[in-house]
């Protein structure tokens, strides 16, 4: 949300946006390949500044279009630690989900869930995009609390442009 105004007020600055798992973004910052990252549940490291900007909750979501015959279909990215944690905590001796749709795209999980193809594992912020109409969290299943942080190297904290980006991102995400 900050990028349009930032680009207008800083015409010489260019951005390269990289999307990956938080652990890989953190590794890129530590190795100086990346300047700054928005990271979920970052691993603490002595060379990093980690600034919490908000929290989110990952949970099981369903659509008002979900047919009862598709309630055992799970739509999720099984590689995410949050998904693995939720699945383990939701089993409790029974198999709640018997069919899976696997995808690494949270946007696709959201869209398929909205269409009623099954139950999606989503962060609340993704589920509520565009007002979140048509989706509701399944309250009798567990949720996973996430901490969303800006992460950058401590020696770069005095860089004027980086400070401005940190300030603008922090203000826009709350």
Description:
It contains 6 helices and 7 strands. 31% of the residues lie in helices and 27% in strands. The protein is elongated and about 55 Å long. The protein is α/β, with parallel strands linked by helices. Strands 1, 2, 3, 4, 5, 6 and 7 form a 7-stranded mixed β-sheet that branches. It has helices at residues 3-9, 22-30, 81-91, 106-114, 124-127, 160-173; strands spanning 36-40, 48-63, 73-76, 99-102, 119-123, 135-137, 144-153.
What is the chains' assembly state?
single chain
SSE order, as H and E? HHEEEHEHEHEEH
Helix-strand category: alpha/beta
- Low-confidence segments, given as residue ranges, are none
Distance between the termini: 11 Å
**Mean pLDDT score:** 90
Strand proportion, as a percent range, falls in 25-35%
Largest sheet: 7 strands, mixed
Roughly what percent helix? Answer: 25-40%
Give a short overview.
This protein is α/β, with parallel strands linked by helices and 174 residues long. The chain has helices at 3-9, 22-30, 81-91, 106-114, 124-127, 160-173; strands at residues 36-40, 48-63, 73-76, 99-102, 119-123, 135-137, 144-153. The mean pLDDT is 90.
